[in-house]
């Protein structure tokens, strides 16, 4: 088995460069690559294009990269929880491409799967369709959407092995599996790293072929955005 | 006028046994509280879960288990987890039978606007455009008028569109209306104490009134 293990987040992200295109797994703050984001914050890079369903919150996740002005462009579906994001967007400092969530997921999936474009009904008749090819199939209109790929994809899993195989937990899976496949270099951080052979092959969600580097993460905060409980 | 909970309660009466359902954020989330217990339905969360359960007790809170509104949740028996791509394959593929979501405006031909106020609000569409483009049946929960009294049931939407010709039914704080395929809001029920005249006055789009319009009945 090829060993993909690196020592820590700093070593994993060291060759990320200015103006790179990055993908980040996660939905809200659930399943985000906390350690990699922290390591990126310590680097002197900017002009980044970040592809992520959300943009974190003001003081956590990708929100911290926005505060440091490392990000030139965000490609997301929903950015509601971030005042700094909204400020930079309305003032024109930040370029933003908002795309339907299913289209985002499928564009990333297509990128990893070698499908350059596909037709989807989402966004027909809206501003999302502006400048895009429309075509009718079986009496319904669809629009052409292109794949998304990244120089680096950062994903977070529950368990992983040294071969890069990954297992996610709960709804923290979300965009992580597709992004793992769509990164030229995919960096996986896991809560528990085990030797290859210890994970049940029947249970693996992301095959290690998509992962170039893996490390044992630490100090997970796993912040909850909307703690909602019943009595 | 109906409260938010009453709107949710009325929408719950539209739920049928055996349906897979996606509930949007806000009033639609409340619908889950009113689905009769004798119905077997499965709630889909577009971030990757079929089988949303009740909110957790304090000791069961799990940051790796949230709904599309980022609220902590639990899972029901027989639930299943999957990726966002799989989730939207279900939605786009027409496997989710009922979508309930909120709206800022609906037009008489069934267009919906609920994602953007130019120059003011730029939160994004999330999964709404995918949902409205593909669901078999779409029910909208909304306020009939804006805070300053302007109708939100319009001839055509003034805000950026989320989806075209897709809304099947509206439950507002004043009325239950069907959006006809040929265009127009057909009045089905009135909120208790609200007259047809008031609904007419507060509906800018074409309102169709046929015969006696009953008051909503909240007894099940």
TrEMBL record, chain A:
<dbReference type="InterPro" id="IPR037171">
    <property type="entry name" value="NagB/RpiA_transferase-like"/>
</dbReference>
<dbReference type="InterPro" id="IPR004165">
    <property type="entry name" value="CoA_trans_fam_I"/>
</dbReference>
<dbReference type="Pfam" id="PF01144">
    <property type="entry name" value="CoA_trans"/>
</dbReference>
<keyword id="KW-0808">Transferase</keyword>
<protein>
    <submittedName>
        <fullName>CoA transferase subunit A</fullName>
    </submittedName>
</protein>
<dbReference type="GO" id="GO:0016740">
    <property type="term" value="F:transferase activity"/>
</dbReference>
<dbReference type="InterPro" id="IPR012792">
    <property type="entry name" value="3-oxoacid_CoA-transf_A"/>
</dbReference>
UniProtKB/TrEMBL annotation, chain B:
<protein>
    <submittedName>
        <fullName>CoA transferase subunit B</fullName>
    </submittedName>
</protein>
<dbReference type="InterPro" id="IPR004165">
    <property type="entry name" value="CoA_trans_fam_I"/>
</dbReference>
<dbReference type="InterPro" id="IPR037171">
    <property type="entry name" value="NagB/RpiA_transferase-like"/>
</dbReference>
<comment type="similarity">
    <text>Belongs to the 3-oxoacid CoA-transferase subunit B family.</text>
</comment>
<keyword id="KW-0808">Transferase</keyword>
<dbReference type="Pfam" id="PF01144">
    <property type="entry name" value="CoA_trans"/>
</dbReference>
<dbReference type="InterPro" id="IPR012791">
    <property type="entry name" value="3-oxoacid_CoA-transf_B"/>
</dbReference>
<dbReference type="InterPro" id="IPR004164">
    <property type="entry name" value="CoA_transf_AS"/>
</dbReference>
<dbReference type="GO" id="GO:0016740">
    <property type="term" value="F:transferase activity"/>
</dbReference>
